[in-house]
Design brief:
mainly alpha; 293 residues
Length: 293
């Protein structure tokens, strides 16, 4: 009885800091992962938010195009026009094929807006959507303590690597389109060391390493920054929750508000920068696919 009472008391006291962080970093998935590269695991929360936010971003751009006027633009139209001009300028400086830019520039625009909106989910209070999800699961007869939900898709490695793989596929398509299948295969074996049969194995190995390195670094850079930002928000949230169970009280509460506000402002710069970097690398890699070696 004493053991049961002690366990009940611990449950009533709420989770520890470690349990709180682990709970928030656990995905709503079809099963537990077996190893770091278990491709049979599906993160339903990341898929849901990625698709929904992608649709929302597309609707926002569609509304901007639909309501565009030739006269004095409104604030929303002006902001979208500035963004379009910025992307178009960057695309012209990197991808010199005007025909390719008809697809590449809108693709870069989509990448920037989509990733920015995905990153911006980190600015929501960390407990807001997970708390609502726990209530929904509890109301439907489930166990709210095992109702996991992560709302920042770009803090999920599977999402960022999926985006980078999409860029890789686009680059491969443009390699074949611009150089022809035979020309690209010849380049795989003839560059970068020279067109000699003794160098073919080394050329091919270096080309494969380059493709793999660019893809992995492309996805890992975005994931690492957003995962670190999510962890900091969780630590700040723990600071706010500690005020009620410690003697510091109001001091921790004020510190939580100041730290949370300061990090949110700084993080707004980070999420914009990360979307811009991902977009620029997308343009650079596609631009490289147009280069002849």
């Amino acid at each position: 009885m004493a053991v049961e009472a002690h366990a009940a008391g611990q449950a009533a006291a709420g989770p520890t800091a470690g349990e709180y962080i682990v709970h928030h970093l656990t995905h709503a998935s079809n099963k537990e992962m077996v190893g770091p590269f278990d491709l049979s695991v599906v993160h339903w929360d990341s898929m849901f938010f990625t698709i929904v936010i992608g649709v929302v971003g597309s609707l926002l751009l569609w509304l901007a195009a639909r309501k565009a006027t030739a006269g004095v633009p409104g604030r929303f139209q002006a902001a979208v026009e500035i963004l379009v001009e910025m992307v178009e300028t960057q695309a012209k400086g990197i991808v010199h094929n005007a025909n390719s830019r008809k697809l590449v520039a809108p693709l870069a625009m989509t990448v920037f807006v989509w990733i920015f909106l995905l990153n911006a989910m980190d600015l929501l209070p960390v407990d807001l959507l997970p708390f609502l999800w726990e209530k929904i699961v509890g109301a439907r007869g489930g166990d709210p303590h095992h109702a996991y939900l992560r709302v920042v898709p770009t803090a999920d490695l599977s999402v960022t690597m999926g985006l980078s793989l999409g860029v890789l596929i686009t680059c491969l398509v443009y390699n074949v389109k611009i150089k022809g299948l035979g020309g690209w295969i010849h380049e795989l074996f003839a560059a970068p060391f020279g067109d000699h049969w003794l160098l073919y194995p080394f050329n091919f190995m270096m080309q494969i390493i380059e493709f793999v390195a660019k893809t992995v670094s492309h996805g890992m850079r975005l994931f690492g920054n957003m995962y670190a930002g999510e962890l900091i928000f969780l630590l700040i949230a723990l600071m706010g929750g500690a005020w009620s169970v410690s003697g510091l009280g109001i001091g921790l509460a004020i510190g939580h508000i100041i730290a949370g506000s300061a990090w949110a402002i700084f993080h707004l710069i980070i999420i914009t920068l990360q979307a811009f970097v991902f977009m620029m690398l997308t343009l650079v890699y596609i631009g490289q696919a147009h280069d002849q070696h």
